[in-house]
Amino acid sequence: MTALRVAMIGYGFMGAAHSVGWRQAPRVFDLPADVEMTVVVGRNADAVAEAAAHWGWAESATDWREVIARDDIDIVDIVTPGDSHAEIAIAALEAGKHVLCEKPLANTVEEAERMLQAAARAAEHGSKAMVGFTYRRVPAVTLLRDLIAEGVVGTVQQVRAAYRQDWLVDPEAPLAWRLQKEHAGSGALGDIGAHIIDMTQFVTGQSVDAVSGTVETIVKRRPLLGSGSGLSGTAAEGYGDVTVDDAAIFTGRLSGGALVSFEATRFATGRKNSLTIEVSGDRGALAFDLEDLNSLQFYDRTADAERQGFTKILVTEAQHPYISAWWPAGHMLGYEHGFVHQVVDLVQAIHDGADPHPTFAEGLSVQRVLAAVEESAANDSAWTRIAAP
Amino acid sequence: MTALRVAMIGYGFMGAAHSVGWRQAPRVFDLPADVEMTVVVGRNADAVAEAAAHWGWAESATDWREVIARDDIDIVDIVTPGDSHAEIAIAALEAGKHVLCEKPLANTVEEAERMLQAAARAAEHGSKAMVGFTYRRVPAVTLLRDLIAEGVVGTVQQVRAAYRQDWLVDPEAPLAWRLQKEHAGSGALGDIGAHIIDMTQFVTGQSVDAVSGTVETIVKRRPLLGSGSGLSGTAAEGYGDVTVDDAAIFTGRLSGGALVSFEATRFATGRKNSLTIEVSGDRGALAFDLEDLNSLQFYDRTADAERQGFTKILVTEAQHPYISAWWPAGHMLGYEHGFVHQVVDLVQAIHDGADPHPTFAEGLSVQRVLAAVEESAANDSAWTRIAAP
Amino acid sequence: MTALRVAMIGYGFMGAAHSVGWRQAPRVFDLPADVEMTVVVGRNADAVAEAAAHWGWAESATDWREVIARDDIDIVDIVTPGDSHAEIAIAALEAGKHVLCEKPLANTVEEAERMLQAAARAAEHGSKAMVGFTYRRVPAVTLLRDLIAEGVVGTVQQVRAAYRQDWLVDPEAPLAWRLQKEHAGSGALGDIGAHIIDMTQFVTGQSVDAVSGTVETIVKRRPLLGSGSGLSGTAAEGYGDVTVDDAAIFTGRLSGGALVSFEATRFATGRKNSLTIEVSGDRGALAFDLEDLNSLQFYDRTADAERQGFTKILVTEAQHPYISAWWPAGHMLGYEHGFVHQVVDLVQAIHDGADPHPTFAEGLSVQRVLAAVEESAANDSAWTRIAAP
Amino acid sequence: MTALRVAMIGYGFMGAAHSVGWRQAPRVFDLPADVEMTVVVGRNADAVAEAAAHWGWAESATDWREVIARDDIDIVDIVTPGDSHAEIAIAALEAGKHVLCEKPLANTVEEAERMLQAAARAAEHGSKAMVGFTYRRVPAVTLLRDLIAEGVVGTVQQVRAAYRQDWLVDPEAPLAWRLQKEHAGSGALGDIGAHIIDMTQFVTGQSVDAVSGTVETIVKRRPLLGSGSGLSGTAAEGYGDVTVDDAAIFTGRLSGGALVSFEATRFATGRKNSLTIEVSGDRGALAFDLEDLNSLQFYDRTADAERQGFTKILVTEAQHPYISAWWPAGHMLGYEHGFVHQVVDLVQAIHDGADPHPTFAEGLSVQRVLAAVEESAANDSAWTRIAAP
After folding, report:
1. Residue A166 to residue C212, Cβ atoms within 8 A
2. φ and ψ at D28, to 5 degrees?
3. B243 in the same domain as B120
């Protein structure tokens, strides 16, 4: 069996999650190819060496360009902050590698467009490109998509999608890189709003064609972090401006005509990682909550009227997506399982010569929706069309 | 339209609830006969007069025997403590009245047997007798029974029934009449255990034929109440013995063979009025929780495997039991609605000449199970058969 | 004890609910005045006579002007469709009556303004005016308001309020009066959107000062009802246009600066009467769901970090609003209890000479927000300020 | 850093779960020693070689005695069926290895006693022995134990513990080894009842001192499996007797006096892997449900009365047990994480020279309770004392 050799660029929180994916996928699923965790890359040599040792990568390196140039690398997995995605991904694709790029695809539409072009050129030579919206691969979300495709909700008439966290409620939480536009691109909108845009498009099979929205910075100044680190450190003197949004509330219009209400916020006190989506149609409804990620709620309007109600499907049966490789019925999965499934599907697609999803085109379409929300917000919430791809 | 004239004997908490039933039933439902709240009876003339005025009874009285002898009374509704049920009910039945008697039917099997005999004799002259297990008439419970009768759970294989409260967790809660065997007969067992025994028999259509159980007095001594009142008052000096159980845990065998686990307790910290029942069969399961009384959980093993799960049926649709007389879909009912439905069904049965349920025979059967639990508990939890009726 | 004599104008679904309020309030609570259900008024003499008999009103009548002119009427309770509220309420106030007017206060801002002026003039002579946003008086909602006033959520930073039903999902549901702009004024927005606007303003103690929104008619043509009834009847030939919205999605800005996301819809498949509100602040959060109306969720950010979480308060304890007059802890209330509490508070206010809430000014402010939503929706969702009162 | 070299004996479902534990622990946590997955042992050479390759064990072998004799093995991890635990564990301990033995410790009390003796002798030479009740290491369960130890529930007054599955509801489910007494020892009682006995003793810090119970085989005959495999295969002709229990219902008495209701069943239709425990005390209560394993319910009787209720603590904060090594707040863990934590704690204990829990003494105590339940069940549910250790 051939082996796919992986280089991971970046080693923050996402590096830990991706490492679990690379490590577990071949040990839990029957993959058509071996996976080798060849090298992890970071700017700080000591820190990245420690990460490599801890997470089980064979080597570490500090120059991603050199790594990309190596012949013994098949897949480049990018988990750096969004402002470096375009440069790395394009170089890797041009070097003939398969690329897995964490979401959001980029910080700007322009970058994402160049990435898509690079992916299209590379595809001609067999390189695959995939964006890391891993929540698609929570089994309940995949099942949600499958059930809509089977027609159980009928015509989609309304969608509600929200991603709520509360880690910024504390006004003394420091001015981290995620709160600075130059690094993060945007705030709650780009970070977690991107997830609910992608999930909406994924499960409905429709595109968000127009939006009207508002973005808000609730706490406008925060304590500075000390110099020497964009990520952490001791508080420097004084306060600085928060230059990204804390919350974004917007309404979207799907290609099929349905309205979608979106909310992305870091100020939902008590909500830790609450991504919820509900799709209402003329035959039924489906609802999902990431804080209860092993289940899916299904309402069937075609059932006996006396017995209608939301059915809580425990998505842990062997016939459910991805489950047969894991545990018996009723045994829970968690957050990182989506990262395992992402590796499974990428490896399978590479082996089959198929295109893995989410594609860069899908990643770009999320980017365009994000840009349209910002444009609308800057334009008194005027309805703003998403440019055709 | 003829009027049914009602005398209510007793005016405690249950008197308030029954008064709602008599007041609301003819105003919400289309009854085949009018209802007149003629007289309420209690020992304390002032207090009962105040209750009559407050609750809308036309008169008050202090001598129940005189009231029962009146020609202008059709129905005697007994809401006194259990130790007086037998005497009043038998006298009322012998006087040709219809009788509605609060649960438990009596404090002893012997009393209940005499009541049943009186009811049988009175039935020959058209008098109806009914026991007040009103939880049967929570719409979700009625639906639960109907669905089992339709076969949706198949063969019943296990039942779990629990009634949990926590009002005795405080060790300084006083020694009220409900904690004294001479007045209350038993504690959690007779008070709330009676409900889950009746509900189990009602929804399954089977009898509890044998039991093995344990009863427990967790706080054995409590502050005495002052003299002058068995119900409330200032604490007298010192402490007295609690002579009833605080909790009863027992296992029952249904006539169809299934095992039932029962728990009745006043020490389930944080559980205020939590009556739960779950019936498992080879085709499905049904579950109910009184703290979420407008819904019923249904699991259908015959459904598409991929979509199985517990369906939360909101029992507020027009086609559900009792609902069409109330509010539109999704509008909640509460505790007292069962008392309204009880009046509706009693009046209908009287009008139709039919036998309302729960019958005194059903009340007696609960009594026998309670006695068997106590016998088992006194006999090292030995399995104890319930004497055939 | 003096008696307050009530005339109720209208006898549809709301008439049934208000009748329960008038009937139960004096029988459950200790009111400072008696209540007499004197007369119910409707256009169809037979039908209103039947309603009077059924619901327990002493008389019926067909001319509301005559009834308002009677000396033996103290309170006029208006439960007609919104297009007649202004005329009746103003006349009743000018006749020196106290007025309880169902929500929405009127179909237009202009009507509501005239009603407020009438109420202000009448107040000089002691007449009280109240709007029927009864959900304020669900005990959990009252407690929610009280807890915010106590400061448990701190500074309000975000609010989410939604009212979701699904009775229009069926595309063959007929073109009832509620779907016709000339009768209903608006659709989901005015009918159920009004509730969440009022509740938001009530619980936060702040006003909605600006909105940006979208309204949508999802099913644009529906089967005509037969002639002879604006409310029901047999389908006439053909289809007619739905002239009100099916769903409204809008964002509001509170006077304190926080953003509110609102959704009102009749197309939320499987959601029967789901009014939800969540208030997030820098010290905590509170959340309520009308389909679980006996409880309130409270998150306390100031608690021990290890033990933080949403606490489900069962709002059935004696110390909770309105509860001590009802049942013991853990016994559920339902939909109509809010109507009872409304009567309790109105009677108390009349007795005390105090102003009952919601005032007509509050009703008008809801009307202005509704109008601003429609204006924004017609103006490409532009942010639209609510005119100062 | 020294390495601990592991041999795993057995490779069924539990082998997969333990492999995840060994693989993930050193990659997620900072362990004081390396872990090497040296060899996996099974009777079928080809199958075990495939398991080794798939799960990442360096070697495979077929003779566990030879493996135990190897010098390069530090830890023997036993995941075979219960009837072989004693022989392998005792041999491994006598060979100076540390032993991790899956639950139940053994199939009989006698075996478990010999295992404890072997562990005691081996402890003198530094060998550690641990039983695999991994549910102790679900973070919410560890937190539950910690909170009880801190006194938040006060004096424990009642406990309810249930483990409910439904995989035997189908009467045509075949007669697998788990349904045969000679292999499995017992049925639901030993398999899943063992978990709730251990968890009860673990979280309360008390022992179950006496029991009264009933065991039941609901479906008494099942289709035979074909020869050639005790685990799976084609159905042979005819049916065979089920020789273990399908359900066990029993009541226990804790050393502190509280009653515990236990239920273990494989016939709870719709319940897939539902382990629930609720501990009620005079100061509060705690409740856990394995189907919602990232949360813990806490009721604080000492809180402000108006705000009491069950708080759903999301046990995903950095200050909660085991969490800081995993993901940010609100990111869910699943079933296998307990196996990772088990390795973490075992490795730490070996490094520290401390005794890891659950000890073999604790495993034996569970075995004694199981035996007492069977004895009670055979003796008309008579209360049966658990022999002192």
Report:
1. no
2. -115, -40
3. no
> Quick check: D381 and B251 CB within 8 A?
yes
CA-nearest residue to D261 within chain B is B249
For B30-60, give one letter per residue: b (16+ CB within 10 A) or e: ebeeebbbbbbbbeeeeebbebbebbbbeeb
Of A251, A270, A382, the CB nearest to C249: A251
CA distance B309 to chain A (A): 4
Q: Which domain holds residue A48?
A: 3-135
Predicted TM-score (pTM) of this structure? 0.96
Among partner residues B170, B263, B281, which is closest to D269 by beta-carbon distance? Answer: B281
Spatial separation of the C-alpha atoms in residues C187 and C216, rounded to whole Å: 10
The ipTM value here is 0.94
pLDDT exceeding 90 applies to what percent of chain A? Answer: 90
Nearest to B313 among A309, A312, A320 (CB): A309
pLDDT in tens, C302-354: 999 999 999 999 999 999 999 999 999 999 999 999 999 999 999 999 999 99
Tokens encoding B82: 């259990």
To test the contact with chain C by mutation, choose from B269, B290, B291 the residue with the greatest count of C C-beta atoms within 10 A, namely B291
Interfacial D residues in 314-333 facing C (CB < 8 Å): 314, 317, 319-320
Say whether both D240 and D306 belong to one domain.
yes
- B280 close to D269: Cβ distance less than 8 angstroms: yes
CB–CB of B309 and A295 under 8 A? yes
Among residues C115, C135, C155, which one ends one of the domains?
Answer: C135
CA separation for the pair D81, A106 (Å, rounded): 52
Q: Which of B160, B97, B104 is nearest to B129 (CA)?
A: B97
CATH code, B32? 3.40.50.720
Distance from CA of A18 to the nearest CA of B (A): 29
Tokens found for residue B153:
């759970």
Q: Is D301 on the interface with B (CB under 8 A)?
A: yes
From the CB of residue C149, how many other CB atoms can be counted at a distance below 10 Å?
Answer: 11
Do C280 and C292 lie in one domain? The reply is yes
Judged by CB atoms closer than 8 Å, whether chains meet at C263 and A261 is answered as yes
| C24 interface with B at CB cutoff 8 Å | yes
Question: Do D44 and D152 fall within a single domain?
Answer: no
Q: Tokens 């929780």 identify what position?
A: B289
Question: Closest Cα of chain A to B311: distance in Å?
Answer: 4
Q: What is the pLDDT of residues A288-333, one digit of tens each?
A: 999 999 999 999 999 999 999 999 999 999 999 999 999 999 999 9
Indicate if the pLDDT at residue B388 is higher than 90.
no
Q: Which residue's entry shows tokens 């459904």? A: B303
B neighbours by CB contacts (3+ pairs under 8 Å): A, C, D
Within a domain: A349: no
CA pair distance B356, A226, nearest whole angstrom: 79
CB nearest D272 (choices: A16, A54, A330): A330
Question: What are the CB-based long-range contacts (under 8 Å, 24+) for D232-235?
Answer: D232/D176, D235/D174
Q: Which residues of chain A have pLDDT under 70?
A: 226-237, 389
Q: Are C69 and C170 within one domain? A: no
Tell me how crowded residue D121 is: count the other CB atoms within 10 A of its CB: 13
Q: Are residues B15 and B144 in the same domain?
A: no
